[in-house]
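Notes from hallway chat w/ T.B., transcribed later so I don't forget. T.B. wanted the structure written out for a chain they're using in a teaching module, and asked if we could keep both sequence and structure tokens in one place. Agreed to drop them here.
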Amino acid sequence: MAYHNQKQYIHYDSPGFIYHFSLLEKNLWVRMLKENIEFHSMKLEEKVLEFSIGIDSAGKFHVASILETGHLKYGIYFNETWESKSLMTFNRNHSRLKNITLFVFEEKIHILMAQSYAENNEFWTIKHYYWNKQNWENQKVCEICTGPYDIPFYADIDEKNNIHLVYKSRIGRYHQIYYEKFLLPYRSWGIPIKISEGPCDHTTPFILCDREDTLHIAWSTFANGHYQINYFGTKLPLSYKSNLRKEINVFAKNGTDYTQPHLMHFDRNMIILWKEGSHFIIQKKLENAKQWSDPKRLANAAEKELIKVGIIGPAYKDMTPVKIIDAYGYIDDKITILGIDPLESPILFNALPTLKADDHESTLSAESMPQIFIGDHELVESQEDFHEGDALLEKLEEITLQNQILQKDLQFFMEQHQAFQTKIYVQIDEVQKKIEDVASSKKGFFDKVQAFFQKDNPS
């Protein structure tokens, strides 16, 4: 089994058109099809390493991409026209950008990505760039220690457009799974919450927010000599008050490794899919239920050349609403997503044609340039005044809660210490009393002996 590490994106619009974004020989192409007929195709960018797609309420596709040339590019595709600009340039000899992720809503654009440096490629900085309708801003989310070939993080947005993030990072000997939330009204990231537990390695975290404001997180854990799948689901918001240990479901089988979990939501069903060796296993449950179905192995999935697929928007074929941010599938003469479609899908889809490098040049005029590009706005560093008072108060509340937990733990240890001291003092008193009793009895004996000799003494 093999699969392409470059993700492809599919969007189904209401008139029945399908938009397909993919890389062909490191060039980013978009195709528009309907009823298996291609109406339009265009090359958007060249020398692309990674890209991410989002769509706004007006039907404009927003594209963020990392290029071989060391540029972070952002652009808009709309009505068969394309315009882009460079947001930043980085030195590819000294640093590496990875896992670019784009969200767009309310005319605001958010780009997440991880950056590492050649001096130590296990340390990554997760960065957040966003358009606030006037300028591009950026801030550091966190620094993590993970492998150079791992996916550093996964992210999703909820119905209130808050961004939720999971990542793994090594603390001491083991990797643990952490969660963070971006508070949209305050443009501020919250305090990390540790999701995983136990002295063992945790890896491959995945996150999904369904349309009922439930947060779903899955990851792999190496325990008892094998990998198992962990799943945690809770209503938003997630805070330090949540008792994670009671809510974690474990999917495990003796002698078998379960790895790389993915989550999908459609037709009021939650699906979890993972790999068992070269095979794929799925389990389902209703979105508000706790009981999962029996595991099911997908037949013949390992024989296909798989790709990563993301669905843009709430529709997939004739199903809506759906949430499929990252899934396994394949596109040849049809589209198939593992866990959603039967392997014999009736939906036809032409294979990507070989296109010339000079085909379909951009025809975007100055008059039709998207409003997002008005003015020459470059990236600016985040300032302290972006952290408004309410955001600080919310962070302070989280810190206060942490402090309360620590104080409770400290109080428990102090009470234990005090009880131990009291016990010791009681034991010391008992020993001293016994010593005094012994001394008193010995003194009485010596007094009797002395009186005896004094009685018999003729003097």
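Follow-up for T.B.: DSSP finds two helices and 30 strands in the chain. Might be a good example for the class.
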